[in-house]
Amino acid sequence: MFSFLSQLFVGFLLPATIYIWKMKTDDWSLLSQYTQRRSNEAFATLVNRHLNLVYSVALRQVRSPQLAQEVAQSVFIDLARDAGVLKPDTILTAWLYRVAYRTAIDVVRSESRRQAREQIAMEMTAMNTASSEWTRIEPLLDETMEVLDEEDRTAILLRYFDNKSLHEVGDALGISEDAAQKRVSRAVERLRELFSKRGAVVGAAGLGVVISAHAVQAAPAGLAATISAAATLAGTTTVAVTTATVTKAITMTLLQKTIVAAAIAAAMGSGIYEAHRASTLGDQVQALQEQQALLTGQIQQLQGERDDASNQVAHLTDENAVLKNDSADLAKLRGDLAQKEAASAANTNSGTMQVTARAWLDRVTRLKERMEKTPDAKIPELKLVTEQDWLNAARGELNTDVDYRRALSAIRAAGEGKVATMLQKALAGYMQANSKQVPTDLGQLQSYFDTPVDDAILQRWEIAPAKTVPNLGLGGDVIITQKAPVDDVFDSRWGIGPGGGVGSTDFLFSEITETMKPVWEAYRAAHNGEWSKDTSQLEPYLTTPEQRAAFDKLMLRNSISK
Questions:
Q1: pLDDT tens, 226-244?
Q2: Alpha-carbon span 324 to 261, nearest angstrom
Q3: Cα(562)–Cα(259) distance, rounded to whole angstroms?
Protein backbone atom coordinates (compact mmCIF):
# COMPACT_ATOMS: atom_id res chain seq x y z
CA MET A 1 0.00 0.00 0.00
CA PHE A 2 2.85 2.35 0.89
CA SER A 3 4.64 1.61 -2.40
CA PHE A 4 1.43 2.32 -4.41
CA LEU A 5 0.80 5.67 -2.65
CA SER A 6 4.46 6.63 -3.11
CA GLN A 7 4.22 6.02 -6.85
CA LEU A 8 1.05 8.14 -7.07
CA PHE A 9 2.71 10.93 -5.11
CA VAL A 10 5.81 10.86 -7.30
CA GLY A 11 3.84 10.62 -10.55
CA PHE A 12 1.53 13.57 -9.90
CA LEU A 13 3.28 15.90 -7.43
CA LEU A 14 7.07 15.60 -7.75
CA PRO A 15 9.45 15.99 -10.73
CA ALA A 16 10.89 12.76 -12.10
CA THR A 17 14.39 13.82 -11.09
CA ILE A 18 13.51 13.80 -7.38
CA TYR A 19 12.14 10.25 -7.72
CA ILE A 20 15.28 9.05 -9.47
CA TRP A 21 17.49 10.71 -6.83
CA LYS A 22 15.55 8.90 -4.12
CA MET A 23 16.04 5.58 -5.91
CA LYS A 24 19.77 6.23 -6.15
CA THR A 25 20.26 7.07 -2.50
CA ASP A 26 17.81 4.57 -1.03
CA ASP A 27 20.46 1.90 -0.32
CA TRP A 28 22.74 4.48 1.24
CA SER A 29 19.94 5.91 3.32
CA LEU A 30 19.35 2.45 4.76
CA LEU A 31 23.07 1.89 5.30
CA SER A 32 23.30 5.22 7.11
CA GLN A 33 20.42 4.24 9.38
CA TYR A 34 22.18 0.98 10.15
CA THR A 35 25.68 2.43 10.74
CA GLN A 36 24.53 5.46 12.71
CA ARG A 37 21.59 4.07 14.69
CA ARG A 38 22.14 0.31 14.38
CA SER A 39 18.71 -0.04 12.79
CA ASN A 40 18.14 -3.76 12.30
CA GLU A 41 15.00 -2.97 10.31
CA ALA A 42 17.04 -0.96 7.79
CA PHE A 43 19.57 -3.76 7.39
CA ALA A 44 16.80 -6.35 7.03
CA THR A 45 15.33 -4.26 4.20
CA LEU A 46 18.70 -4.30 2.43
CA VAL A 47 18.96 -8.06 2.86
CA ASN A 48 15.48 -8.65 1.43
CA ARG A 49 16.20 -6.31 -1.47
CA HIS A 50 19.47 -7.94 -2.59
CA LEU A 51 19.32 -11.50 -1.22
CA ASN A 52 18.03 -13.12 -4.42
CA LEU A 53 20.94 -11.65 -6.40
CA VAL A 54 23.58 -12.79 -3.88
CA TYR A 55 22.02 -16.24 -3.47
CA SER A 56 21.79 -16.77 -7.24
CA VAL A 57 25.44 -15.79 -7.83
CA ALA A 58 26.56 -18.16 -5.08
CA LEU A 59 24.36 -21.03 -6.31
CA ARG A 60 25.81 -20.86 -9.82
CA GLN A 61 29.28 -21.38 -8.38
CA VAL A 62 28.85 -23.85 -5.50
CA ARG A 63 26.02 -25.92 -7.10
CA SER A 64 24.54 -26.59 -3.67
CA PRO A 65 21.55 -24.69 -2.18
CA GLN A 66 22.85 -25.30 1.33
CA LEU A 67 26.35 -23.95 0.55
CA ALA A 68 24.81 -21.06 -1.39
CA GLN A 69 22.88 -20.06 1.74
CA GLU A 70 26.11 -20.08 3.75
CA VAL A 71 27.86 -17.95 1.14
CA ALA A 72 24.95 -15.48 1.19
CA GLN A 73 25.13 -15.27 4.96
CA SER A 74 28.89 -14.60 4.81
CA VAL A 75 28.40 -11.83 2.21
CA PHE A 76 25.86 -9.95 4.31
CA ILE A 77 28.00 -10.37 7.43
CA ASP A 78 30.79 -8.70 5.45
CA LEU A 79 28.37 -5.91 4.50
CA ALA A 80 27.38 -5.39 8.14
CA ARG A 81 31.03 -5.10 9.19
CA ASP A 82 32.13 -2.91 6.26
CA ALA A 83 29.03 -0.69 6.02
CA GLY A 84 30.72 2.19 7.81
CA VAL A 85 33.77 2.25 5.50
CA LEU A 86 32.19 1.87 2.06
CA LYS A 87 32.83 4.82 -0.24
CA PRO A 88 29.78 7.05 -0.94
CA ASP A 89 29.97 6.39 -4.69
CA THR A 90 29.84 2.60 -4.24
CA ILE A 91 26.91 0.99 -6.07
CA LEU A 92 25.72 -1.63 -3.61
CA THR A 93 24.44 -4.07 -6.26
CA ALA A 94 27.87 -4.21 -7.89
CA TRP A 95 29.66 -4.48 -4.52
CA LEU A 96 27.48 -7.36 -3.33
CA TYR A 97 27.80 -9.16 -6.68
CA ARG A 98 31.62 -9.12 -6.59
CA VAL A 99 31.85 -10.12 -2.90
CA ALA A 100 29.37 -12.97 -3.50
CA TYR A 101 31.28 -14.20 -6.54
CA ARG A 102 34.66 -14.12 -4.82
CA THR A 103 33.35 -15.72 -1.63
CA ALA A 104 31.72 -18.53 -3.63
CA ILE A 105 34.92 -19.07 -5.63
CA ASP A 106 36.85 -19.45 -2.36
CA VAL A 107 34.37 -22.11 -1.23
CA VAL A 108 34.89 -24.19 -4.37
CA ARG A 109 38.64 -23.67 -4.63
CA SER A 110 39.26 -27.41 -4.28
CA GLU A 111 40.49 -28.82 -7.56
CA SER A 112 37.79 -31.44 -8.00
CA ARG A 113 34.97 -28.86 -7.97
CA ARG A 114 36.80 -26.41 -10.18
CA GLN A 115 37.70 -29.22 -12.60
CA ALA A 116 33.99 -30.04 -12.92
CA ARG A 117 33.17 -26.45 -13.84
CA GLU A 118 36.03 -26.24 -16.36
CA GLN A 119 35.00 -29.51 -17.96
CA ILE A 120 31.46 -28.15 -18.34
CA ALA A 121 32.79 -24.94 -19.89
CA MET A 122 35.04 -26.83 -22.32
CA GLU A 123 32.25 -29.13 -23.44
CA MET A 124 29.94 -26.17 -23.94
CA THR A 125 32.24 -24.61 -26.54
CA ALA A 126 30.55 -26.59 -29.30
CA MET A 127 27.00 -27.05 -28.05
CA ASN A 128 24.50 -26.94 -30.90
CA THR A 129 21.52 -24.61 -31.06
CA ALA A 130 19.14 -27.24 -29.76
CA SER A 131 20.21 -26.34 -26.15
CA SER A 132 18.50 -23.43 -24.45
CA GLU A 133 20.45 -20.18 -24.35
CA TRP A 134 20.41 -20.07 -20.54
CA THR A 135 21.73 -23.63 -20.31
CA ARG A 136 24.65 -22.61 -22.51
CA ILE A 137 25.62 -19.41 -20.72
CA GLU A 138 24.69 -20.19 -17.11
CA PRO A 139 27.94 -22.07 -16.17
CA LEU A 140 30.00 -19.25 -17.75
CA LEU A 141 28.02 -16.20 -16.61
CA ASP A 142 29.81 -15.10 -13.44
CA GLU A 143 33.30 -15.99 -14.66
CA THR A 144 32.65 -13.93 -17.82
CA MET A 145 31.11 -11.04 -15.85
CA GLU A 146 34.32 -10.92 -13.79
CA VAL A 147 36.32 -10.28 -17.00
CA LEU A 148 34.28 -7.15 -17.86
CA ASP A 149 35.57 -3.80 -16.70
CA GLU A 150 33.78 -2.30 -13.69
CA GLU A 151 31.63 0.17 -15.68
CA ASP A 152 30.28 -2.47 -18.06
CA ARG A 153 29.69 -4.98 -15.26
CA THR A 154 27.81 -2.41 -13.15
CA ALA A 155 25.65 -1.40 -16.11
CA ILE A 156 24.57 -5.02 -16.74
CA LEU A 157 23.97 -5.68 -13.04
CA LEU A 158 21.70 -2.64 -12.69
CA ARG A 159 19.82 -3.21 -15.98
CA TYR A 160 19.31 -6.98 -16.04
CA PHE A 161 20.06 -8.31 -12.53
CA ASP A 162 18.22 -5.50 -10.66
CA ASN A 163 15.81 -4.91 -13.62
CA LYS A 164 16.14 -1.13 -13.37
CA SER A 165 14.99 1.20 -16.17
CA LEU A 166 17.55 2.96 -18.37
CA HIS A 167 16.65 6.19 -16.59
CA GLU A 168 17.47 4.60 -13.23
CA VAL A 169 20.69 3.08 -14.60
CA GLY A 170 21.80 6.45 -15.94
CA ASP A 171 21.07 8.17 -12.66
CA ALA A 172 22.95 5.53 -10.66
CA LEU A 173 25.98 5.94 -12.96
CA GLY A 174 25.74 9.72 -13.10
CA ILE A 175 25.04 9.86 -16.85
CA SER A 176 22.09 10.63 -19.12
CA GLU A 177 19.47 8.07 -20.14
CA ASP A 178 20.81 8.02 -23.74
CA ALA A 179 24.35 7.50 -22.47
CA ALA A 180 23.10 4.72 -20.18
CA GLN A 181 21.44 2.99 -23.15
CA LYS A 182 24.70 3.15 -25.12
CA ARG A 183 26.72 1.86 -22.19
CA VAL A 184 24.33 -1.04 -21.55
CA SER A 185 24.36 -1.92 -25.28
CA ARG A 186 28.14 -1.79 -25.35
CA ALA A 187 28.40 -3.93 -22.20
CA VAL A 188 25.97 -6.55 -23.58
CA GLU A 189 27.91 -6.71 -26.85
CA ARG A 190 31.19 -7.13 -24.94
CA LEU A 191 29.61 -9.89 -22.82
CA ARG A 192 28.23 -11.59 -25.93
CA GLU A 193 31.71 -11.55 -27.52
CA LEU A 194 33.23 -13.12 -24.41
CA PHE A 195 30.57 -15.85 -24.45
CA SER A 196 31.29 -16.46 -28.16
CA LYS A 197 34.99 -16.95 -27.40
CA ARG A 198 33.96 -19.67 -24.95
CA GLY A 199 31.73 -21.34 -27.55
CA ALA A 200 28.36 -20.07 -26.25
CA VAL A 201 26.89 -18.05 -29.13
CA VAL A 202 23.92 -15.87 -28.11
CA GLY A 203 22.30 -12.98 -29.97
CA ALA A 204 22.87 -9.53 -28.44
CA ALA A 205 19.13 -8.82 -28.32
CA GLY A 206 18.28 -12.13 -26.69
CA LEU A 207 21.17 -12.09 -24.21
CA GLY A 208 19.70 -9.34 -22.04
CA VAL A 209 16.30 -11.05 -21.98
CA VAL A 210 17.84 -14.40 -20.96
CA ILE A 211 19.91 -12.86 -18.16
CA SER A 212 16.99 -10.79 -16.86
CA ALA A 213 14.75 -13.87 -16.80
CA HIS A 214 17.12 -16.34 -15.18
CA ALA A 215 20.13 -14.70 -13.49
CA VAL A 216 18.37 -13.89 -10.20
CA GLN A 217 16.12 -16.49 -8.58
CA ALA A 218 14.33 -16.53 -5.27
CA ALA A 219 16.36 -17.47 -2.21
CA PRO A 220 14.90 -20.04 0.24
CA ALA A 221 12.16 -18.78 2.51
CA GLY A 222 13.39 -17.66 5.90
CA LEU A 223 16.99 -17.13 4.77
CA ALA A 224 16.66 -13.33 4.85
CA ALA A 225 15.60 -13.32 8.49
CA THR A 226 18.43 -15.68 9.43
CA ILE A 227 21.02 -13.57 7.63
CA SER A 228 19.71 -10.28 9.06
CA ALA A 229 20.01 -11.59 12.60
CA ALA A 230 23.50 -13.01 12.08
CA ALA A 231 24.87 -10.06 10.11
CA THR A 232 23.58 -7.35 12.43
CA LEU A 233 25.04 -9.23 15.41
CA ALA A 234 28.41 -9.38 13.63
CA GLY A 235 28.26 -5.65 12.90
CA THR A 236 27.62 -4.53 16.49
CA THR A 237 30.86 -5.72 18.12
CA THR A 238 34.50 -4.80 17.87
CA VAL A 239 35.80 -8.22 18.84
CA ALA A 240 35.85 -9.70 15.34
CA VAL A 241 36.99 -13.24 16.04
CA THR A 242 34.67 -13.87 19.00
CA THR A 243 31.65 -12.33 17.26
CA ALA A 244 32.17 -14.28 14.06
CA THR A 245 32.22 -17.52 16.06
CA VAL A 246 29.08 -16.65 18.08
CA THR A 247 27.22 -15.48 14.97
CA LYS A 248 27.98 -18.66 13.08
CA ALA A 249 26.82 -20.71 16.07
CA ILE A 250 23.42 -18.95 16.20
CA THR A 251 22.41 -20.07 12.68
CA MET A 252 24.24 -23.36 12.31
CA THR A 253 23.17 -25.44 9.34
CA LEU A 254 23.72 -29.19 9.26
CA LEU A 255 27.01 -28.71 7.42
CA GLN A 256 28.15 -26.06 9.93
CA LYS A 257 27.38 -28.43 12.81
CA THR A 258 29.66 -30.97 11.16
CA ILE A 259 32.67 -28.66 10.89
CA VAL A 260 32.06 -26.13 13.69
CA ALA A 261 35.19 -27.16 15.58
CA ALA A 262 37.30 -26.66 12.47
CA ALA A 263 35.59 -23.34 11.81
CA ILE A 264 36.59 -22.19 15.30
CA ALA A 265 40.16 -23.24 14.60
CA ALA A 266 40.12 -21.42 11.25
CA ALA A 267 38.77 -18.22 12.83
CA MET A 268 41.46 -18.32 15.53
CA GLY A 269 44.12 -19.05 12.90
CA SER A 270 42.93 -16.12 10.80
CA GLY A 271 43.16 -13.76 13.76
CA ILE A 272 46.68 -14.98 14.60
CA TYR A 273 47.73 -14.50 10.99
CA GLU A 274 46.51 -10.91 10.85
CA ALA A 275 48.53 -10.15 13.98
CA HIS A 276 51.65 -12.02 12.76
CA ARG A 277 51.63 -11.67 8.98
CA ALA A 278 55.37 -12.20 8.76
CA SER A 279 55.42 -15.37 10.87
CA THR A 280 57.16 -18.48 9.55
CA LEU A 281 55.60 -21.80 8.65
CA GLY A 282 56.78 -23.16 11.97
CA ASP A 283 54.69 -20.56 13.80
CA GLN A 284 51.62 -21.68 11.85
CA VAL A 285 52.25 -25.31 12.81
CA GLN A 286 52.47 -24.26 16.45
CA ALA A 287 49.20 -22.35 16.18
CA LEU A 288 47.54 -25.41 14.69
CA GLN A 289 48.80 -27.56 17.55
CA GLU A 290 47.34 -25.10 20.04
CA GLN A 291 43.99 -25.28 18.24
CA GLN A 292 44.12 -29.07 18.30
CA ALA A 293 44.79 -28.94 22.06
CA LEU A 294 41.65 -26.78 22.43
CA LEU A 295 39.58 -29.39 20.58
CA THR A 296 41.04 -32.14 22.79
CA GLY A 297 39.91 -30.19 25.85
CA GLN A 298 36.40 -29.94 24.43
CA ILE A 299 36.31 -33.68 23.79
CA GLN A 300 37.42 -34.40 27.37
CA GLN A 301 34.72 -32.04 28.67
CA LEU A 302 32.01 -33.95 26.81
CA GLN A 303 33.38 -37.25 28.01
CA GLY A 304 33.33 -35.90 31.56
CA GLU A 305 29.54 -35.72 31.30
CA ARG A 306 29.39 -39.43 30.77
CA ASP A 307 30.34 -41.17 34.03
CA ASP A 308 31.54 -44.37 32.47
CA ALA A 309 33.59 -42.69 29.76
CA SER A 310 35.04 -40.23 32.31
CA ASN A 311 36.28 -43.08 34.52
CA GLN A 312 37.89 -44.78 31.54
CA VAL A 313 39.68 -41.61 30.43
CA ALA A 314 40.90 -40.91 33.99
CA HIS A 315 42.21 -44.46 34.26
CA LEU A 316 44.02 -44.24 30.95
CA THR A 317 45.45 -40.82 31.90
CA ASP A 318 46.94 -42.31 35.09
CA GLU A 319 48.44 -45.13 33.07
CA ASN A 320 49.88 -42.58 30.67
CA ALA A 321 51.69 -40.81 33.54
CA VAL A 322 53.21 -44.11 34.70
CA LEU A 323 54.20 -45.35 31.26
CA LYS A 324 55.30 -42.03 29.68
CA ASN A 325 58.95 -43.21 29.45
CA ASP A 326 58.04 -46.44 27.78
CA SER A 327 57.41 -45.62 24.11
CA ALA A 328 55.87 -48.98 23.26
CA ASP A 329 53.35 -48.85 26.09
CA LEU A 330 52.68 -45.18 25.38
CA ALA A 331 51.73 -46.00 21.80
CA LYS A 332 49.36 -48.70 23.04
CA LEU A 333 47.85 -46.28 25.58
CA ARG A 334 47.23 -43.69 22.92
CA GLY A 335 45.61 -46.31 20.73
CA ASP A 336 43.29 -47.34 23.57
CA LEU A 337 42.39 -43.72 24.27
CA ALA A 338 41.65 -43.12 20.60
CA GLN A 339 39.36 -46.17 20.55
CA LYS A 340 37.53 -44.92 23.65
CA GLU A 341 37.10 -41.47 22.11
CA ALA A 342 35.89 -42.93 18.82
CA ALA A 343 33.38 -45.20 20.57
CA SER A 344 32.08 -42.28 22.64
CA ALA A 345 31.84 -40.04 19.59
CA ALA A 346 29.78 -42.61 17.69
CA ASN A 347 26.94 -42.21 20.21
CA THR A 348 26.20 -38.54 19.54
CA ASN A 349 26.28 -36.00 16.75
CA SER A 350 28.79 -33.98 18.72
CA GLY A 351 31.11 -36.98 18.65
CA THR A 352 30.83 -37.13 14.87
CA MET A 353 31.56 -33.44 14.66
CA GLN A 354 34.71 -33.82 16.77
CA VAL A 355 36.00 -36.77 14.76
CA THR A 356 35.43 -34.87 11.51
CA ALA A 357 37.22 -31.79 12.83
CA ARG A 358 40.17 -33.80 14.13
CA ALA A 359 40.48 -35.62 10.81
CA TRP A 360 40.43 -32.32 8.95
CA LEU A 361 43.13 -30.83 11.17
CA ASP A 362 45.15 -34.00 10.74
CA ARG A 363 44.99 -33.57 6.95
CA VAL A 364 46.25 -29.99 7.33
CA THR A 365 49.18 -31.23 9.41
CA ARG A 366 50.00 -33.97 6.89
CA LEU A 367 49.75 -31.50 4.01
CA LYS A 368 52.19 -29.12 5.69
CA GLU A 369 54.55 -32.00 6.38
CA ARG A 370 54.38 -33.04 2.71
CA MET A 371 55.18 -29.44 1.72
CA GLU A 372 58.22 -29.47 3.99
CA LYS A 373 59.40 -32.77 2.52
CA THR A 374 58.87 -31.51 -1.06
CA PRO A 375 61.01 -28.35 -1.42
CA ASP A 376 60.24 -28.15 -5.14
CA ALA A 377 56.56 -27.64 -4.29
CA LYS A 378 57.26 -24.44 -2.37
CA ILE A 379 56.88 -20.94 -3.81
CA PRO A 380 57.61 -17.61 -2.06
CA GLU A 381 53.90 -16.67 -2.33
CA LEU A 382 53.18 -19.20 0.44
CA LYS A 383 54.14 -16.60 3.05
CA LEU A 384 50.84 -14.84 2.19
CA VAL A 385 48.47 -17.78 2.82
CA THR A 386 46.34 -18.07 5.94
CA GLU A 387 45.27 -20.97 8.11
CA GLN A 388 41.89 -20.80 6.36
CA ASP A 389 43.69 -21.33 3.03
CA TRP A 390 45.34 -24.46 4.45
CA LEU A 391 41.97 -25.74 5.68
CA ASN A 392 40.44 -25.15 2.24
CA ALA A 393 43.31 -26.96 0.52
CA ALA A 394 42.98 -29.97 2.85
CA ARG A 395 39.18 -30.20 2.42
CA GLY A 396 39.40 -33.39 0.33
CA GLU A 397 40.93 -36.75 1.13
CA LEU A 398 44.73 -37.20 1.12
CA ASN A 399 45.11 -40.86 0.26
CA THR A 400 47.26 -40.84 -2.89
CA ASP A 401 50.12 -38.90 -4.40
CA VAL A 402 47.62 -37.30 -6.79
CA ASP A 403 45.54 -36.12 -3.81
CA TYR A 404 48.60 -34.40 -2.36
CA ARG A 405 49.51 -32.84 -5.70
CA ARG A 406 46.01 -31.39 -6.01
CA ALA A 407 46.08 -30.03 -2.47
CA LEU A 408 49.57 -28.53 -2.79
CA SER A 409 48.48 -26.89 -6.05
CA ALA A 410 45.43 -25.44 -4.27
CA ILE A 411 47.54 -23.84 -1.52
CA ARG A 412 49.90 -22.42 -4.13
CA ALA A 413 46.90 -21.00 -6.01
CA ALA A 414 45.72 -19.30 -2.81
CA GLY A 415 49.03 -17.48 -2.44
CA GLU A 416 49.28 -16.66 -6.15
CA GLY A 417 45.71 -15.33 -6.14
CA LYS A 418 46.65 -12.86 -3.39
CA VAL A 419 49.68 -11.73 -5.41
CA ALA A 420 47.47 -11.34 -8.52
CA THR A 421 45.17 -9.00 -6.57
CA MET A 422 48.17 -6.96 -5.37
CA LEU A 423 49.55 -6.77 -8.93
CA GLN A 424 46.16 -5.65 -10.26
CA LYS A 425 46.02 -2.73 -7.83
CA ALA A 426 49.67 -1.74 -8.36
CA LEU A 427 49.28 -1.89 -12.16
CA ALA A 428 46.24 0.40 -12.01
CA GLY A 429 48.17 2.89 -9.87
CA TYR A 430 51.17 2.83 -12.19
CA MET A 431 49.11 3.37 -15.34
CA GLN A 432 47.17 6.22 -13.74
CA ALA A 433 50.43 7.95 -12.82
CA ASN A 434 52.06 7.30 -16.23
CA SER A 435 49.47 8.36 -18.81
CA LYS A 436 48.02 4.86 -19.20
CA GLN A 437 51.42 3.44 -20.17
CA VAL A 438 52.11 -0.21 -19.28
CA PRO A 439 55.35 -0.91 -17.35
CA THR A 440 58.14 -2.75 -19.11
CA ASP A 441 59.43 -4.37 -15.94
CA LEU A 442 57.58 -5.56 -12.84
CA GLY A 443 60.14 -3.81 -10.65
CA GLN A 444 58.54 -0.53 -11.74
CA LEU A 445 55.40 -1.50 -9.76
CA GLN A 446 57.23 -1.82 -6.44
CA SER A 447 56.41 1.71 -5.26
CA TYR A 448 52.70 1.17 -6.07
CA PHE A 449 52.15 -1.78 -3.70
CA ASP A 450 50.50 -1.03 -0.35
CA THR A 451 53.39 -2.92 1.24
CA PRO A 452 56.67 -3.92 -0.45
CA VAL A 453 56.56 -7.24 -2.31
CA ASP A 454 59.45 -9.67 -2.00
CA ASP A 455 61.62 -9.67 -5.15
CA ALA A 456 61.58 -13.46 -5.02
CA ILE A 457 57.83 -13.31 -5.66
CA LEU A 458 58.07 -10.85 -8.55
CA GLN A 459 60.75 -13.01 -10.20
CA ARG A 460 58.13 -15.74 -10.70
CA TRP A 461 55.92 -13.36 -12.71
CA GLU A 462 56.42 -11.62 -16.04
CA ILE A 463 54.89 -9.17 -18.50
CA ALA A 464 54.04 -11.26 -21.57
CA PRO A 465 52.04 -10.88 -24.80
CA ALA A 466 48.31 -11.31 -24.23
CA LYS A 467 48.26 -14.26 -26.64
CA THR A 468 50.36 -16.19 -24.09
CA VAL A 469 47.10 -16.92 -22.24
CA PRO A 470 44.52 -16.38 -25.00
CA ASN A 471 41.47 -17.91 -23.32
CA LEU A 472 41.31 -15.37 -20.47
CA GLY A 473 40.05 -12.60 -22.75
CA LEU A 474 41.29 -9.75 -20.53
CA GLY A 475 41.89 -7.35 -23.43
CA GLY A 476 44.99 -5.32 -24.26
CA ASP A 477 48.27 -6.37 -25.85
CA VAL A 478 50.04 -7.62 -22.73
CA ILE A 479 49.27 -9.62 -19.62
CA ILE A 480 50.99 -10.20 -16.27
CA THR A 481 51.21 -13.93 -15.51
CA GLN A 482 53.44 -16.57 -13.91
CA LYS A 483 56.46 -17.64 -15.93
CA ALA A 484 55.97 -21.37 -15.37
CA PRO A 485 53.99 -23.83 -13.23
CA VAL A 486 55.36 -25.92 -10.40
CA ASP A 487 52.99 -28.75 -11.36
CA ASP A 488 51.99 -28.57 -15.04
CA VAL A 489 48.98 -30.87 -14.52
CA PHE A 490 47.23 -29.21 -11.58
CA ASP A 491 48.54 -25.63 -11.19
CA SER A 492 46.42 -22.56 -11.97
CA ARG A 493 47.61 -19.79 -14.27
CA TRP A 494 46.68 -16.25 -13.31
CA GLY A 495 46.42 -13.27 -15.63
CA ILE A 496 46.16 -9.53 -14.96
CA GLY A 497 45.22 -7.28 -17.89
CA PRO A 498 45.93 -3.56 -18.34
CA GLY A 499 42.18 -2.89 -18.32
CA GLY A 500 41.93 -3.98 -14.67
CA GLY A 501 40.67 -7.51 -15.29
CA VAL A 502 41.95 -10.53 -13.35
CA GLY A 503 41.28 -14.16 -14.20
CA SER A 504 42.70 -17.66 -13.91
CA THR A 505 42.82 -20.74 -16.08
CA ASP A 506 45.14 -23.77 -16.17
CA PHE A 507 48.59 -24.29 -17.51
CA LEU A 508 47.49 -27.75 -18.66
CA PHE A 509 44.60 -26.67 -20.90
CA SER A 510 46.70 -23.89 -22.46
CA GLU A 511 49.46 -26.41 -23.13
CA ILE A 512 47.40 -29.20 -24.71
CA THR A 513 44.64 -27.36 -26.58
CA GLU A 514 46.33 -27.37 -29.98
CA THR A 515 47.67 -30.92 -29.52
CA MET A 516 44.29 -32.39 -28.54
CA LYS A 517 42.19 -30.41 -31.01
CA PRO A 518 42.46 -33.09 -33.79
CA VAL A 519 41.50 -35.79 -31.26
CA TRP A 520 38.37 -33.92 -30.13
CA GLU A 521 37.39 -33.26 -33.74
CA ALA A 522 37.87 -36.91 -34.69
CA TYR A 523 35.69 -38.05 -31.79
CA ARG A 524 32.94 -35.58 -32.68
CA ALA A 525 33.01 -36.59 -36.33
CA ALA A 526 32.43 -40.19 -35.28
CA HIS A 527 29.64 -39.33 -32.82
CA ASN A 528 27.37 -36.92 -34.71
CA GLY A 529 29.05 -33.81 -33.32
CA GLU A 530 28.70 -34.82 -29.67
CA TRP A 531 31.47 -34.12 -27.15
CA SER A 532 32.88 -36.98 -25.10
CA LYS A 533 31.41 -37.30 -21.61
CA ASP A 534 34.42 -39.28 -20.38
CA THR A 535 38.02 -38.42 -21.25
CA SER A 536 38.85 -42.13 -21.63
CA GLN A 537 36.56 -42.26 -24.69
CA LEU A 538 39.13 -40.21 -26.61
CA GLU A 539 41.84 -42.89 -26.43
CA PRO A 540 40.99 -44.70 -29.73
CA TYR A 541 41.48 -41.41 -31.61
CA LEU A 542 45.05 -40.74 -30.46
CA THR A 543 47.52 -40.83 -33.35
CA THR A 544 50.76 -39.23 -32.11
CA PRO A 545 53.05 -39.57 -29.06
CA GLU A 546 52.33 -35.93 -28.21
CA GLN A 547 48.60 -36.64 -28.13
CA ARG A 548 49.21 -39.67 -25.92
CA ALA A 549 51.23 -37.57 -23.45
CA ALA A 550 48.54 -34.87 -23.36
CA PHE A 551 45.82 -37.52 -22.94
CA ASP A 552 47.68 -39.11 -20.01
CA LYS A 553 47.87 -35.73 -18.26
CA LEU A 554 44.14 -35.19 -18.75
CA MET A 555 43.39 -38.64 -17.33
CA LEU A 556 45.61 -37.90 -14.33
CA ARG A 557 43.92 -34.54 -13.74
CA ASN A 558 40.45 -36.09 -13.98
CA SER A 559 41.26 -39.04 -11.72
CA ILE A 560 39.21 -39.29 -8.52
CA SER A 561 40.60 -40.45 -5.19
CA LYS A 562 39.08 -43.74 -4.08
A1: 777 666 665 654 333 433 4
A2: 29
A3: 22
